[in-house]
Amino acid sequence: MVFRAAKYLLLLALLFSAGLLPRSVFAQRPAPGGASRGPGIASPLEGGDPTIELDVYVRGADGGPLEEMAMVTLVAPTGQVAGQGTTLGGNIKFSGIAA
Questions:
Q1: What letter would DSSP give residue 67?
Q2: Which of 24, 41, 62, 96 is the most exposed place for a label (fewest CB within 10 A)?
Q3: What pLDDT digit, counting tens, does each position of 34-92 carry?
Q4: 0.85 exceeded by pTM
Q5: 49 vs 42: CA distance, rounded Å
Q6: Is residue 69 part of a domain?
């Protein structure tokens, strides 16, 4: 009985302590302030390059590169097509994609 009560108290303490963590712990983006940027790298808002280069590797069901041709389409969150291309061998590089 005592063991069961201690187990539930420990579980409640863990859940409560997880609720006290800052939001940035659970986020996938860095906290505001640009602390993760290296020196000399300007963001698009600071006058930096607003485009990125993106390498896409397409793999087959076995985990290896595709032997046949494949069409890759990049779709922006707005629904617009950001880039489109074909690949033979599983690798395609997109340049000038809006950040």
A1: S
A2: 62
A3: 555 555 566 656 666 688 889 999 888 888 888 889 999 999 888 889 899 998 888 89
A4: no
A5: 8
A6: yes
